[in-house]
Design a protein that fits this description.
Elements lengths: L2 H15 L1 H11 L14 H15 L3 H20 L1 H6 L4 H18 L7 E8 L2 E8 L5 H14 L4 E10 L3 E9 L1
Antiparallel strand pairs: 1-2, 2-4, 3-4
The structure holds protoporphyrin IX containing FE.
The site of protoporphyrin IX containing FE (HEM) has 25 residues, from helix 1, helix 4, helix 5, helix 6 and helix 7.
């Protein structure tokens, strides 16, 4: 994945735990001398190893690292660094979710070699969306939970999220039911 993602983990850790802990995580994961560059492509294993090492060093579950990262991605990286892009997705959470299937095609104008997830949306009623997530990667379902949580806060729209389906084969598939209150 693009270094932007690794930089995101770096930002999450530094803002919450400080630079010394980040340096410790980076060294333990084997990337002591690496400076992550946003537009450089890194193997996915780099990102996964940073996340699992962060969980070990901080003594929290990988699930909680990925959820916190998803929330941080929307509320810090998205909102602060890509505000115009976030705004182009819609004025409220329902509209944003309806547009999510096209969102990463705009991301790909900036990061042309990204392999983003695919989304499909079913509108159940005016408050309820079924969001289908397809990824060529395994293990990012908890990241999705954090992203949805971040969107709920971003749009100031309290939501309930039900996990209706999950499968991991060569790809990951999840079905989230998002009810906006
Ligand atoms: C301005 C905001 C956003 C930007 C700039 C952005 C950009 C990116 C980039 C560069 C990647 C890495 C892909 C690669 O390098 O191969 C990625 C992955 C991903 N994005 Fe976004 N994204 C944004 C918002 C969102 C939102 C709102 C969601 C969903 C609610 C989302 C879901 C994901 C997921 C789940 C992945 C992990 C890849 C996978 O599942 O296979 N992103 N995004």
């Amino acid at each position: 994945m693009y270094g932007l993602v690794n930089q995101g983990i770096q930002g999450l850790i530094i803002e919450n735990y400080g630079s010394a802990i980040w340096e410790k995580i980076k060294a333990k994961a084997g990337y002591e001398d690496v400076t992550f560059l946003a537009s450089h492509l890194y193997d996915d294993s780099v990102t996964f190893s940073l996340a699992t090492t962060a969980a070990e060093v901080l003594d929290i579950s990988l699930e909680n690292v990925l959820k916190a990262f998803g929330k941080y991605w929307v509320l810090n990286i998205g909102k602060e660094k890509y505000g115009t892009l976030m705004k182009s997705g819609g004025d409220n959470i329902i509209q944003f979710l309806k547009n999510l299937p096209n969102f990463h095609s705009r991301v790909m104008l900036i990061y042309p070699n990204a392999q983003p997830p695919e989304f499909k949306v079913d509108v159940i009623n005016e408050n309820t969306i079924h969001l289908h997530y397809y990824s060529s990667r395994i293990g990012l379902t908890d990241f999705m939970f954090g992203l949805i949580d971040g969107l709920s806060e971003f749009f100031d729209a309290p939501c309930s999220v039900n996990h209706l389906n999950h499968s991991e084969t060569e790809i990951t598939y999840d079905l989230f039911e998002i009810i906006v209150h």
